[in-house]
Amino acid sequence: MTREDEIFEKLKKGDPDAAGELARLYYDDILRYCLFHVPDRSLAQDAVQETFLKVFRHFGSYRHRGRFRAFLYRVAANVCVDICRRRTWEPVPEQVPFEEKGLQEGEDREDFRRLVELVPEELREIIILRFSQELKLGEIAKVTGLPMRTVQSRLRKALRILKTELEGRET
Q1: What is the largest CA-CA distance in the chain?
Q2: Locate the RNA polymerase sigma factor 70 region 4 type domain: which residues (predicted)?
Q3: 38, 62, 116, 146 — which has fewest CB within 10 A?
């Protein structure tokens, strides 16, 4: 039984602390995901809070089948889209400051952000979910609503584009 399953058992039994445990289990992952979709850290934190509020507000109709993580990312994606629709963004500066642990982690995140910008928009979400969030292809298919084969082909296409871009820069 996974940690997630244990928490869902507590929720079924009416444990008042279980919802907080579930939020703590995924908070950092969802925040990292939202940071790629909104340019401001405080808005990303707002998106995470709104994600968990929506999930818990409609929790009574959710039936746990071991796919909560994918469901949570789908809700977070929709929340980020809603936030972006409500705001008019200025262009993201070349150097985005991060308050994450350690300088190297911030630099790695910025390098990853620049790599993601090299691929077309329709492939970015798959790259972010696979390599930043470390979701499996099946989970990505559930989050994006795409067939598994489409996820696989888009991932291969994105990786080919990145390889070509990076090889072109080295020469």
Answers
A1: 61
A2: 110-160
A3: 62
Query: Which position has the higher pLDDT, 142 or 114?
Result: 142
For CA atoms 100, 105, 111, 112, give the dihedral sign: negative
CB atoms within 10 A of CB 162: 16
For 1-92, CATH number out of 3.40.710.10, 3.90.1860.10, 1.10.1740.10, 2.60.40.10 equals 1.10.1740.10
107 in helix, strand or coil?
helix
Could you report the per-residue pLDDT of 72-105, keeping only the tens digit for each? Answer: 999 999 999 888 888 755 554 555 554 545 545 5
Structure token digits, residue 145: 């609503």
Q: Is 73 exposed, middle or buried (0-12, 13-18, 19+ CB in 10 A)?
A: buried
This prediction's pTM: 0.66
Portions of the chain given CATH number 1.10.1740.10:
1-92
150: tokens are 């489409």
N- to C-terminal Cα distance for the chain?
A: 50
